[in-house]
Amino acid sequence: MNLRSRNKVSADFSMSSMTDIVFLLLIFFMLTSPTITPEALDLILPKAKGKSTNVQSISVSITKDLQFYVDTERVSSSALEGVLKTRLAGEETPTIILRAEQGVPIEKAVNVMDIANRNKYKIILAVKPELEK
Q1: Looking at the DSSP assignment, which residues form a beta bridge with residue 11?
Q2: Burial 112-132 (b: 16+ CB within 10 A, else e)
Q3: Whole-model pTM?
Q4: Rounded to the nearest 5 degrees, what angle is found at the Cα of 36, between the Cα atoms of 30 and 42?
């Protein structure tokens, strides 16, 4: 009497479903990557521990040469408050990302923070993430 099973399990593994998932992830990251990188100047930021945020209304950058930029537009320090008021007018929660390059005197960063405080803007100091040891 032959008691062998007629249903044999195949040991083959199909990679087609795995490649579908990989391609879907690739498309997802290709579509979302331009929204992650803000249009900003290339500055060497100070290092700090903390968490970054992607919510941004406007970016204020201060270079080592003490030049002020609103997003990528160069602005004089005296005209900075007026430019910020016009750009942030009508925003529900106006937010400024302050990007002060390493070596900038603290007084310049405090001036921008003072402008934000007077106008009730939320301000976030951008830093370069410090690698944990």
Answers
A1: none
A2: bbebbeeeebebbbbbeeeee
A3: 0.56
A4: 115
> In this structure, what are the phi and psi dihedrals at residue 109, rounded to the nearest 5 degrees?
-70, -35
* Residue 42 domain-assigned (yes or no): no
- Tell me which residue has tokens 């390059």: 101
Do residues 118 and 110 touch, judged by C-beta distance below 8 A? no
Residue 53: domain span: 47-129
CATH, residue 124:
3.30.420.270
One DSSP character per residue, the chain reads -----S-PPP-----HHHHHHHHHHHHHHHHHHHHHS-S-----PPEE-S------SEEEEE-TT--EEETTEEE-TTTHHHHHHHHHTT-SS-EEEEEEPTT--HHHHHHHHHHHHHTT-EEEE--EEPPP-
**Chain centroid to CA 53:** 6
Q: Mean pLDDT of successive 10-residue segments in the chain (133 residues)? A: 66 79 88 62 57 66 90 89 89 87 87 90 78 55
